[in-house]
């Protein structure tokens, strides 16, 4: 988008860009409202020890308070007693600086971020199959030319409306759109074929699709032989998923499975995309892997116009997971337990590799350990609101309250900031330069329109200020520059040679080329719009199959909790709603939480449209008005997760996590529903 | 915990039990003795193997291996010595067990017809049960032009469909008046016969066979009505009988199958039986789903993962799905009695549905042909969930009242509050107001309201409203 500022304020204009082609949803149009919002924080807040209330304070007082506490906690309880929690909305520069701050200034292993809640399962599945995790290994425009496009657990019509322009183009061109979703979403309504499985059964659906492809002879045997390894084990495991078995489990008719397999197996350009619906399960990595297996067996990845991809969620969902705010990661998508990676990054940072901490624990495990005898006693939060967004949120809220020190940097008083001991007001999007990396692996520029308001500092400045107080001021100033361009220059060096190699990218090149696709190792060499044409990112260049099997959800329905509960987004709100709930037009469009349920179920429960209902799980309850819809299965209820308080969907969700990615099972748990 | 488990049988039940044990914690040695010399395979796929579209490796199943699993295909067990807790194998080896599991399956029944000696069948006469049977059928079918399948039950029809797909002129001979009489009512059987005829399978009903004459050149099947049918191949699909020989010889309680309790225990507490060879509560299973459920329960009990696990039979769904055939039968659809009955029949298009509902639950259903709600019906039956208030949903699927409100034919009939552009929450009223304030083109209305600037999906609808506004003389709009 392009911004214009005049006497009346800042206004937003759509921009013809290769990804959105001028499209903006309501959140984009109204985003400037947040710049001068009356709720904007413009001064640090310190919790008054006597009254217990947050009171305005000077920056020096706030930063001194933080530094003093951090030093005391680390000297008494060790370096890991301080933890850092980041966000997938931070720019690449900020995500990079945050990871470096944790490892170099705090020297704690405990850093992770909210991307663990929304992309980590696809990331893990992509890494183990392809050796590379880039949301789409091809340009978004390929979607518009696909003969067959399978969307699994993705609802872009509500979560990413401009992307739907590509779907429209695809279908106008005669392509077939198939959507897998337990609900008849706005996206599913546009599909030629909608598979509506019981939540938690997408993996079985994928295995049955591959079973059919095998029995119909649609597997690309030459590709499997030349470009992959491990297929025999997958072939044997999907032999046990004959379509009627998957039908009974998922409710998807065999005829629909066959039609889907045929469209995938006999189409020319075929793309399979997964999103949160496939990922947010305790078996999310395996579920995504099942669709990756299907794509590999059909010979899609690396074939121009075809492929597998993941629709990344947050603003900088891709870049945010590449440069070191993940517990096990160093910049350039390197592993923190890889000695060569440690040497390289430590060299760039000017510290001995041995001084870098080892891997920490994934987000939920980290949050759940806060304030416990062996867990961190202090937490610094940047760009995240776990009180609303974490699963089993009431428990996490309790953990945050048990901390000795909670620091939250945000532009608004989020629900998490409201619990903090120190709140630091930060700059926001139109006030900072930097880069983001979109779902295509395309590095984009964000340009500052104007400086932050008086009293507000950037995240980079906050990290520099804290580093100066925690160590030698001169060293800190060199290590933590506040200018994003300087940080990006260092990020380039740190990422050089890594999987996500930014070494050849500079801001001017991004401006000239409408973004630059990583890997881009050299300033005078090409970038990489398409991955995998010749080889995959594994040591031997072959993609890896992994045999995966369906398993039940961590919590299945029972007599006491007889209904499936699933969560998701609505168009006019975003994430924990801290920002979008404060925009009047968005509030009008989606004013409050709701519980979506089928009219048959509602009738049995004596619930009318609009009645207040209570959804109860083993972990908590949610109260919101009923919204009746025949687009949801009668055995399943849905609630959006953008609201706090009584309408907080995450009071109900399960905190079971995927054993590989650590992603929580937001998409399925067992509940009972009654009139409130 | 049980230290040494010996499983006799590496079929669908035995192999599954080995995998279930493998997946559970604990230290134990599991020996799987399979009489067949093959890797574990999926019997359900054998009819697809007959079509020639897949090869033998495609029917192989994942085998539990390593971690204490000793898998020995091609090792038949000849005796069980209960006092010594040993089994004896074909080559005389003795293998000790702490717990023995019989998963010996069932054998194909060779009907008592003149010309058929079960121990020495002619080369062109083959039962349809095992992978070796399949190989023999394929060996004969290769170069054959015609086949007869004796038996019009589920397996016989699958075999016939597979052979017809290979291009063989195939005839099914069935002794009763309609196909799959255990699952279907006569009307459904007739629709199914019509469907099969369309796929090139000839059906001969209500004619018992009386004898078989076979030599190197062909097979003749004599029928009770005096006719004789000639073909290159005769496939026997006349049911199966539990393989209880070991259990009987060992003195275990055997009726039709090896009698087991809810824990799958036989009359010897150190011996269990699962799958087709077992008889639970007077019933034989004969299908994969109950066999796998038994394997799960037995693994829970044997490993102590859930010592209280008990096998509870669930109602079974019979499913026949192949190119051109889509059949599901469950429960008692034709039983009559109290309750509601839903029916739909379109024989010309091969569609038939009959469902019985009692106390808001499905108690039986027969669905044949194009039934879009088939997945829903199976799940409602399997899980015992209440049926939709509007029963038509069971016949017509979600085509009924499903996806959102259809756009109104005319903008005049749309309420002002109707949201035209979802992405930017623009109502019809907002578009009208924009037009009234001077916007006279689609682009101007879009610029003024942002309608159509998100996903772009409503551009046509917005255009339609602008056209209507241009033509209408005066439009009232509520604020």
Question: Can you tell me about this structure?
Answer:
The complex is a heterodimer of chains A (676) and B (479). Chain A has 676 residues and is of the alpha/beta class. Chain A has 23 helices and 27 strands. In chain A, the strands form 7 sheets. Chain A has a 7-stranded mixed β-sheet, with helices on one face. In chain A, helix 7 (202-215) runs parallel beside helix 13 (284-297), helix 14 runs antiparallel to helix 20 and helix 18 (459-470) packs antiparallel against helix 19 (473-479). The longest helix of chain A is centred in the N-terminal third of the chain and has 19 residues, at 59-77. Chain A is globular, with a radius of gyration of 24 Å. The mean pLDDT of chain A is 95. Helices cover 25% and strands 26% of the residues of chain B. With 479 residues, chain B is of the alpha/beta class. Chain B has 4 domains: 4-107 and 241-303, FAD/NAD(P)-binding domain (3-Layer(bba) Sandwich), CATH 3.50.50.60; 125-238, FAD/NAD(P)-binding domain; 317-399, Enolase-like, domain 1, CATH 3.30.390.30; 411-471, Arc Repressor Mutant, subunit A (Orthogonal Bundle), CATH 1.10.10. The longest helix of chain B is centred in the middle third of the chain and has 16 residues, at 288-303. The model of chain B is unreliable at 399-407 (pLDDT under 50). Chain B is built from 12 helices and 28 strands. Chain B has helices at residues 12-22, 46-51, 131-141, 154-165, 186-198, 245-249, 288-303, 374-383, 392-396, 428-436, 442-449, 459-471, and strands at 4-8, 29-34, 69-73, 77-81, 86-89, 94-96, 99-102, 106-108, 125-127, 146-150, 169-173, 201-204, 209-214, 219-223, 228-231, 233-236, 240-242, 258-260, 271-273, 278-280, 283-284, 317-322, 325-331, 340-346, 351-358, 361-368, 419-421, 426-427. Chain B is globular. Chain B starts with a strand and ends in an 8-residue tail after the last helix. In chain B, the strands form 8 sheets. Chain B has a 5-stranded parallel β-sheet, covered by helices on one side. Chain B has a 5-stranded parallel β-sheet with strand order 9-16-10-11-12. The interface between A and B is large, with 61 and 48 residues.
């Amino acid at each position: 988008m392009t911004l214009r500022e005049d006497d009346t304020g800042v206004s937003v204009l759509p921009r013809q860009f290769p990804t959105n082609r001028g499209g903006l949803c309501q959140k984009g149009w109204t985003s400037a409202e947040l710049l001068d919002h009356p709720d904007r924080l413009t001064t640090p807040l310190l919790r008054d020890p006597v009254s217990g209330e947050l009171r305005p304070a000077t920056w020096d007082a706030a930063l001194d308070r933080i530094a003093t506490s951090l030093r005391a906690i680390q000297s008494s309880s060790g370096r890991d007693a301080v933890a850092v929690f980041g966000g997938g909305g931070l720019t690449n520069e900020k995500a990079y600086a945050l990871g470096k701050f944790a490892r170099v200034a705090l020297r704690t292993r405990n850093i992770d971020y909210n991307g663990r809640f929304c992309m980590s399962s696809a990331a893990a599945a992509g890494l183990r199959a392809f050796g590379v995790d880039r949301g789409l290994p091809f340009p978004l425009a390929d979607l518009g030319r696909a003969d067959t496009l399978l969307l699994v657990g993705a609802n872009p019509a509500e979560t990413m409306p401009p992307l739907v322009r590509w779907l429209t183009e695809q279908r106008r061109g005669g392509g077939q759109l198939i959507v897998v979703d337990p609900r008849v979403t706005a996206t599913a309504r546009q599909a030629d074929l909608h598979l509506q499985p019981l939540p938690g059964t997408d993996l079985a659906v994928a295995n049955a699709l591959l079973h059919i492809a095998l029995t119909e002879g649609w597997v690309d045997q030459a590709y499997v032989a030349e470009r992959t390894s491990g297929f025999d084990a997958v072939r044997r495991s999907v032999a046990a998923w004959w379509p009627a078995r998957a039908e009974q489990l998922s409710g998807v008719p065999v005829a629909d499975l066959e039609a889907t397999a045929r469209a995938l197996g006999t189409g020319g350009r075929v793309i399979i995309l997964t999103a949160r619906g496939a990922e947010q399960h305790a078996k999310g990595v395996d579920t995504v892997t099942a669709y990756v297996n299907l794509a590999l067996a059909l010979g899609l990845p690396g074939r121009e116009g075809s492929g597998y991809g993941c629709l990344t969620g947050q603003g900088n969902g891709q870049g945010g997971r590449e440069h070191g705010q993940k517990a096990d990661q160093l910049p350039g998508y390197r592993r923190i337990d890889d000695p060569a990676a440690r040497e390289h990054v430590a060299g760039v940072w000017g510290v001995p590799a041995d001084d870098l901490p080892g891997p920490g624990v994934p987000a939920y495990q980290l949050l759940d350990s806060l304030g416990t005898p062996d867990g961190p006693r202090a937490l610094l939060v940047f760009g995240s609101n776990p009180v609303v967004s974490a699963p089993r949120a009431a428990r996490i809220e309790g953990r945050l309250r048990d901390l000795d020190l909670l620091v939250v940097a945000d532009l608004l008083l989020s629900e998490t900031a409201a619990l903090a001991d120190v709140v630091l007001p930060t700059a926001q999007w139109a006030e900072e330069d930097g880069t983001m990396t979109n779902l295509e692996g395309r590095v984009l520029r964000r340009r500052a329109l104007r400086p932050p308001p008086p009293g507000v500092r950037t995240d980079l400045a906050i990290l520099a200020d804290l580093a100066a107080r925690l160590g030698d001021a001169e060293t800190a100033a060199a290590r933590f520059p506040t200018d994003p361009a300087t940080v990006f220059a260092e990020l380039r060096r740190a990422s050089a040679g890594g999987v996500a190699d930014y070494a050849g990218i500079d801001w001017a090149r991004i401006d000239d080329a409408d973004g630059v696709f990583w890997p881009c190792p050299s300033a005078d060499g090409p970038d990489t719009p398409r991955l995998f044409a010749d080889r995959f990112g594994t040591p031997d260049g072959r993609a890896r199959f992994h045999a995966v099997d369906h398993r039940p959800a961590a919590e299945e329905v029972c007599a006491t909790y007889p209904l499936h509960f699933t969560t998701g987004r609505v168009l006019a709100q975003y994430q924990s709603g801290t920002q979008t709930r404060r925009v009047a037009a968005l509030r009008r469009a989606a004013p409050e939480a709701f519980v979506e349920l089928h009219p048959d179920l509602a009738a049995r429960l004596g619930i009318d449209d609009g009645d207040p209902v209570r959804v109860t799980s083993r972990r908590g309850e949610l109260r919101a008005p009923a919204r009746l819809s025949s687009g949801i299965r009668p055995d399943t209820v849905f609630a959006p997760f953008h609201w706090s308080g009584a309408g907080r969907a995450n009071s109900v969700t399960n905190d079971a996590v995927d054993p590989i990615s650590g992603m929580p099972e937001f998409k399925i748990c067992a509940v009972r529903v009654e009139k409130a | 915990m049980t230290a040494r488990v010996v499983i006799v049988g590496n079929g669908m039940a035995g192999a599954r039990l080995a995998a279930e044990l493998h997946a559970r914690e604990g230290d134990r040695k599991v020996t799987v003795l399979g009489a067949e010399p093959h890797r574990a395979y999926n019997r359900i796929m054998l009819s697809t193997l007959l079509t020639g579209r897949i090869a033998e490796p495609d029917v192989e199943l994942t085998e539990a291996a390593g971690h204490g699993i000793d898998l020995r295909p091609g090792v038949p067990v000849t005796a069980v010595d209960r006092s010594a807790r040993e089994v004896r194998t074909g080559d005389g080896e003795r293998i000790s067990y702490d717990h023995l599991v019989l998963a010996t399956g069932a054998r194909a029944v060779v009907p008592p017809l003149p010309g058929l000696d079960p121990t020495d069948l002619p080369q062109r006469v083959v039962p349809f049960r095992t992978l070796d049977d399949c190989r023999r059928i394929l060996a004969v079918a290769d170069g054959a032009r015609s086949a007869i399948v004796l038996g019009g039950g589920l397996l016989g029809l699958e075999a016939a469909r597979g052979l017809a797909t290979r291009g063989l002129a195939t005839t099914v001979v069935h002794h009763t008046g309609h196909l799959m009489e255990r699952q279907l009512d006569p009307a459904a059987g007739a629709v199914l016969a019509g469907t099969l005829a369309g796929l090139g399978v000839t059906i001969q009903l209500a004619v018992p066979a009386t004898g078989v004459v076979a030599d190197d050149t062909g097979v003749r099947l004599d029928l009770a009505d005096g006719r004789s049918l000639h073909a290159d191949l005769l496939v026997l699909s006349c049911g199966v009988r539990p393989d209880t020989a070991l259990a009987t010889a060992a003195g275990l309680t055997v009726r039709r199958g090896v009698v087991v309790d809810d824990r799958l225990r036989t009359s010897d507490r150190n011996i269990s039986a699962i799958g087709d060879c077992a008889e639970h509560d007077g019933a034989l299973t004969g299908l994969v789903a109950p066999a796998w459920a038994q394997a799960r329960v037995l693994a829970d009990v044997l490993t102590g993962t859930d010592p209280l696990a008990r096998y509870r039979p669930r109602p079974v769904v019979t499913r026949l799905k192949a190119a051109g055939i889509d059949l599901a039968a469950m429960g008692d659809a034709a039983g009559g009695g109290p309750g509601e009955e839903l029916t739909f029949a379109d024989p010309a298009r091969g569609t038939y549905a009959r469902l019985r509902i009692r106390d808001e639950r499905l108690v039986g259903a027969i669905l044949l042909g194009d039934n879009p709600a088939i997945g829903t019906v199976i799940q409602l039956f399997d899980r015992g969930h209440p049926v939709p208030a509007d029963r038509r949903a069971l016949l017509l699927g979600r085509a009924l009242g499903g996806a959102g409100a259809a756009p109104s034919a005319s903008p005049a009939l749309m309420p002002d509050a109707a949201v035209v552009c979802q992405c930017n929450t623009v109502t019809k009223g907002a578009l009208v107001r924009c037009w009234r304030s001077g916007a006279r083109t689609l682009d101007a209305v879009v610029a003024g309201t942002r309608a159509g600037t998100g996903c772009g999906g409503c551009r046509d609808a917005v255009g339609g409203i602008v056209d209507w506004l241009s033509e209408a003389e005066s439009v009232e709009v509520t604020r």
